[in-house]
Every structure is written in structure tokens, then in C-alpha cells.
Amino acid sequence: MRHYIFIFLLLLQAVLLSSPLAHAQRGLKRAGTVAPQDTPTVASQDTALVAGQDSLNMAAPQGDIATTIKYSARDSMQFEVDQKVVHLYGDAKINYGDMNLEAAYIQINYETNTLTATTLPDSTGKEAGTPVFTQGAETYAAKRIAYNYKTRRGRISEVVTQQGEGYIHSEVVKRNENNEFFGLHNKYTTCNLEHPHFYINAGKIKAIPNDKVMAGPFNLVIGDIPTPLGFLFGLFPTPKSKRASGVIVPSYGENARGFYLNNGGYYFAWNDYVGTRLTGDIYSLGGWNAEASTDYVKRYAYRGSFRFTYDNFKNDEADIERSRTTDNPLSQLPSSRQTFWINWNHSPVTKPGRGSFSASVNAGSQLHQRINYNSSAQYLSPTFNSNVSYQKTIPNSPFSYTIKASQGQSTQTGTMNFVLPDLNFSMSQVSVSELFSDEPGTNKWYEKFTLSYNVRASNTVSNLQPARTRSDFPLLESAPADTIDINFDNLQRLWDSGQKQAVHAFGIGLGNYKIARFFNFSPSVNYSETWLDEKYTFNFNPDSQRVDIDTTNFGRVYQYSAGANLSTTVYGTVNFKPGGKVEAIRHLVRPSISYNFRPDFADERFGFYQRTLVGVDPNSNQAQYRDLGRFRSGLPATGLSSALNFSIDNSIEMKVKAKSDTAEVKTEKVSIIDNLRLSSGYDFARDSLKLADIRISMNTKLFRFINMNFNTTLDPYEKNDSTGRDIDRYYFDLLKGRLGRVTNASLNLTASLNPEAMRSESPTPDNLPSLEREPFDPMLPQYVDFKIPWTLNVNYTMSYNRSFGLVGRSNLTQTAGIDGSLNVTEKWKVTYNATYDISNQNISYANVQIYRDLHCWDMSIGWVPFGLQRGYNLTINARSSLLQDLKLTKRSRTGYNY
């Protein structure tokens, strides 16, 4: 009997190989969309059943099928030879070129050239095995798919497909040979749930993959509630990682300048490396804003951006508010002003041996940043700085150079300072023996000597020019400053008024030496020289009772000093009896003594200062003389200096037994004092008050999460009760424990609480967040981290200053701050920030932000209850960048930018 079954299977195989079904195994052409097809044919009784996981890969002559078709099924495959139909059951798969089809059931009809895929009920009666159609980067999931591989057309029912960042839910979809599909009764959304939170309801949609989605009349549906928001047609770009030009839809809202349309314009994608945005704003109370922004990048070379903004600020309500109250921020703004601002950032990719060009430019009109600020830091920033530079290190040499231009401006005074040009050439520290000899290792006495050199040539220009010094008895005074307007007509005047100089600095190292095995001795010599474009000569004019000034075009100033440093390290350890929690305490002491000598450069032999008659005292009829500096800058300090400076650094740590779940005994180090420093100096060359102020500083960590920093300055001398000046008589007394009078002191305590850090047995500074490392930007809700349950940062700052004499007074200021975050639920987060002025008993700043994760939406509520920026801000926006203009914003008009 077995022989008959075997012969029957051989005959069946021969029939299959000779049938048209075998010729169909050559594969299918590129899939398109197809016309509707009938329900799959049910397998008849004359079919052959092949059980198990099978796969066929057969060849046939060329026909409608252009490549190999591979198909398989987990449960079974049925062949209807006479009908030319194949049925695939259970995890059915078809692979055809770049097209893949997976479903619970797939039918292949070679007579009609169609593929049909549907779901099948499982053991519980639930539909399973949703058909998934993949072609290239596109994926479609539907309950029923019918596809004609010859015409490349198809029909997909109840499909969900992704186009870019959007998802399209359609009852019926048809595809054509151009790979475009047309949907009927559609929902377009960026929510990735099966039942989306919101969608754009459109009867008809046409999608061109990697290009755009076009819709007919549509309206917005939120939470299954239709809204009247919609339009006669819709166009949603869906480019695939490709830059494209297009219209930028403006956003709308309301602020202190009235109702507005913001950031509307056009984007030009010149190529894959350069793009330009031209946008503008318009306000109902008058005024407008225009901006041109260009981003550029060159792979492995540089990237950057350039932005130019022009603002025509006009607010007729400013005069009204100014007349009513000065408390409203509108009263502090002009009623009309034209301003501009330039931002340029260029960052190179640094490569060894190659120069690098970088730029960071922030410059413009004085009031522009106050009128158009986006953050508190931008509004309160007193200065803005810009610089453009080129830097290069010469390969295989210690030399490098930098060419730089910089600018700084004050938003309060309008003063602008320029350094143009700014040239720097330097030689890094090299051994003198290597510099002057080619014979290494000669053991010469000068081998430890090192030399470094730096020269900086610059021209410093300011639009605020002080007048020349003149004499009004009995003191020299300056005439009022002269302000030069920044424009093309005054460029020559600005350049001529610049201060041109070249500063040469030599670093001479004399090596490090061991003395008595435990002491480090380091001598040093310093020399610097400055070349300037002006040198003054002073002459007193008895007729005008003033000092006349003669100027030469070149001057040279130099200064030098010599010194030495002696330091060592002392350890002390106290061990405790075994069995206790504390095993040992270690004290580390680092004393250091240095001596420095500098001559009196006010001596006439140097020629840097000139002893000049400035007038005659009318009361005593005596001539008055003063030492006047003969240069505008670079003048060395006056007076002979022969100073001995000393300092003592201390650190104390403790070795304790650590908690452990095992029987093994573990120890850890706990810092008691990170550093305690005491420093002062004694100048032998002074005739009185030789001892310098005593400075004490300490920093440590308390209870593992509180950082403490303390600084104070002590005056060691007695004070004159009437003038408050020092008397050459010591106030400190070591027997009485008195080091000096406190002239200033500061204390800062910062506690950063974090549940993860509190759980750690041996926390490190890295897992203790600081106020600077955890900013909460209300303008960027998408960066809110909902994983951290809560954070709390508390800080306290105290500052004390004291003056002496009849009008002596003490000034104590104290501030306390708190900031942090709290996850009320998995989707709700609150951040807060407040500063309280203890001295004046008022809240100087407070800010509360509430964030809500709405899955495919974001909601943020900001509230500033005090100050110039007080007000609230409510924003609800779609999370997807594709629908970035789909948002609702409400801002109060109390603060300017809210």
C-alpha cells in the first residue's frame, strides 16, 4: 500500500510541475493599487493538501511575473490546480521583490492575477492575523487587502497607513500604478493609537508617498466631538528626510502689542546643505517684524546659522499706560522704535594640523532684546558679546596663532566696545636646552629651565570716548565723556580714537627642586612688555592753572618680578579601637610659603610716571605735585614690593564602616571638611601696615547632600574711630582668639534632593543635581522628563559687609530660594522656582509651570505672579512637528511678553 501512495505523490508532483501554476512561480512586478476583487474562492474537494511549514521557489518562462515569488504558511497550503488558486493558512507570507504581504489567510489566483489577504477567527472567535502589506518603506495594515500584481492596482478595506508623521484611517483605499492611493471616509491624525484622540475628518484623501497628503473639505474632531474648525481643502506635506520649500503658516495669539500673526512666511530649501526662512509678524496695535534666517552645513567641515531681524515697534497704548501708571511694563517701552538684531553662529569641525574658523555674533540695537525677549535671562542680560576668530596650531612646533575680532555692548547704557583687530601669537612652554641645543640629556644645570612667549596686538575702540585729562586745582579731573554714534560717517573717527597696543609676555620657569626630601622649591621669573601708540608728557601752565599734555606716537612699558615658592604636605591619622563604627580620622595639611619681589616702577629712572606740578594751594601757598602716568594703559603698579605670602590648606576625612547586606565588612570614606584655607601676606618694603588682610574660606558637604561654601576677610589692624582708617597697631590677639575685624563675609548653602541620590549609600557629586544643571524652560515643554518623581533644590545665601568710622555701617543681605519639580500623576508634572529676599521681606521672583502629557498633545501652564514679567501663559499644542501650528495659546496682558 505504501508503494501506491509513493507512486501517487510522484504523479501529483509531475502534474504540478507541468501545470500553469508552476509557471506562476516566477514572481510579481512592483506592487501598485488594484481594483476590487471578489471573495476568495473556497478550496474544493479536488484540491491537494500539503501540511506543515512549506516554501516554493520555482522558475517558469517570462510572462506577467518579472521576479521570483516566495510564499509560505504555518498551518497548511491548498492547491486548486484546475482553478489555478493557492490557499495559504496560518502566518501566511508572500515575498515578491520589494513587496511583502503577511496575514492569517492569503489567496493567490493565477487566473485573475490577484492576491487576497484577510483575517481569520481564532479559537475564541476573535479576528486575528491582520494583513500587513509592506512595500519599500511603506507599511499598511488592513482587515482585507486585494491586489492585482499585473495591473498593480488594489483595494484595501479598513486600512491604517503611515505617511510621514501622520496616520490615515480609511474605510476603503485604492492604489494605482503610480503608487498613489485614494481613501474614502478618512481620519488623518498624528496620534498612533487605534482609536485616536483627535483627527481631521475628510471624506476623500489622496496621498502621494514621501510627498504630500491632499484632502477635500474637512473638519477637526477632538475626543470624538466634531468641531466647526476646518476648511474647504487641506494639504499636509509628508517628505521623507528631504528638505523641501514651502509656505510657513503663521500662528496667532494676543500679547501687549495686540492680536498678532507670528512667524508666517516661506522656506527655501536651496539644497540639502543650505536653507533659508523668510518670516514676519504683524500686530493689531501697530508695528511689524521681519526676519531672514539661513542654516548651512558642510559634512565633516562646519555648520552654522545666520539670522537678521528688523522690528518696527509701534504701540499707541504705551503713552496711555505711561500716563496712567509706571507699574505696567508698557510704561517702560517706547511708543515707536525701529530696531534690528544680528545672530551668527559658526562652528567648525576641528582637525589636527588644520586651522579652525568660528563665530558667535550677537549684536544690534540697544532696546531690541527688551522688546523681543523670549526668556528672563535674555531680558535681564546687561551685556551681549560677539567674537569672530581663526585659530591654528603649526604642526610639529610649539607655535600657534589666533586672529580675532570681538565686540561687546551694554543694553543699559548703549556703550559699545570693539577689539579689531586682535592678533595673538604664542609659543607653548619648552625646555631651554631643547630650544638652544640639539643635544638632549646633557645633564646641564639649566636643563630644567623653561621658556614660553606670547604676544597680543590689538586695537580697542569704544563709542564712549573720555576727554583728555586736564587740571582743575587741586585735583585732576576729566571732562564729560563724548559719545560717538556708530555709523559709516564716523568709522574713521572711531578708528583714530582706538587704543592700539602690543603686549609681550615671557614665562620663565627655573624648574622644581626637592629640599630635605619633603619640601618642593619652585623659583620663578616674570617679564612683560607693552608697546603703545601714545606717550604723554605733562607741563603745568601757570597762566591757565592747568596741565598741558604733549603726545608722542610710540611708548614702551615693561615690568618684571621674581619669586619663589616652598610647599610640602603633612599627613596625620588617628586610629580608633576595633569594633566601633569610626575606624580612623585623617588630617591633611598643605602649607605653602611664597616670596615675590617687584621694584618701584614709579621711580623716575623707569620713566613710566612723571612727577608733575599741578597747582598751588591757595591756603598754604605750597606747590602741589602728583605722579601722573604717561600711558593710557599697561602701567605697572607703584611702590616697592617685597612680600612674603603664606597659606595653609586643610582637609579632614573619616573612615567608617558602611552598611552591607552581606557578612563582609566594608568601609567607606566620609569627608568632614573638603578644604579649609587660611591665607595672608607680609610686605617688608612697606613703611607701615605690612600685614595683609587675613582670608579664610571653607567648603564641605553636610549630610551628603548639603554643599556649604564660606568666605570671610579679617582686617588685622585697629581702626581710627573718626575716619575709619587703619592704625599701625595690631587688633588680632591669638591669646584672646582674636584674628581681626570682620570686614566682609559670605555663606552659601545648597541642598539638592533627589530620590535616586537619597537612596544611594555613597553618593557622588554626579548624582546630586545642581540648580545650574536642571533648568526648567517654560518655552520647551517637550523636554520635560516625566520619569523623575520629584526633585527639590533649596539654597540660602548670606552676605555681610562692614565699614568703620563715624559713618560706619553694616550691611547684611540674605536670600533664600527653592526650585524643583513634582510628578502629581504619571501624566501631570509641576515645576516651581522662587526666590525670597529675607532682608527686604519680599519675594523677588517666582515662577510656576504645569505640564500635562496628553499623549499626542502637550499642555503647559505658566504663571509668574510678581515682577515685570508677571502674568500667565496657557498653551495646548499637537506634539507632532507636522501639525505644529495646531495649537491654542492664551496669554494675559499684564506682562509685556505674556
From TrEMBL:
<dbReference type="InterPro" id="IPR050218">
    <property type="entry name" value="LptD"/>
</dbReference>
<dbReference type="Pfam" id="PF19838">
    <property type="entry name" value="LptD_2"/>
</dbReference>
<keyword id="KW-0732">Signal</keyword>
<dbReference type="InterPro" id="IPR045659">
    <property type="entry name" value="LptD_2"/>
</dbReference>
<feature type="signal peptide">
    <location>
        <begin position="1"/>
        <end position="24"/>
    </location>
</feature>
<protein>
    <recommendedName>
        <fullName>LPS-assembly protein LptD central domain-containing protein</fullName>
    </recommendedName>
</protein>
<dbReference type="GO" id="GO:0009279">
    <property type="term" value="C:cell outer membrane"/>
</dbReference>
<feature type="domain" description="LPS-assembly protein LptD central">
    <location>
        <begin position="213"/>
        <end position="717"/>
    </location>
</feature>
<dbReference type="GO" id="GO:1990351">
    <property type="term" value="C:transporter complex"/>
</dbReference>
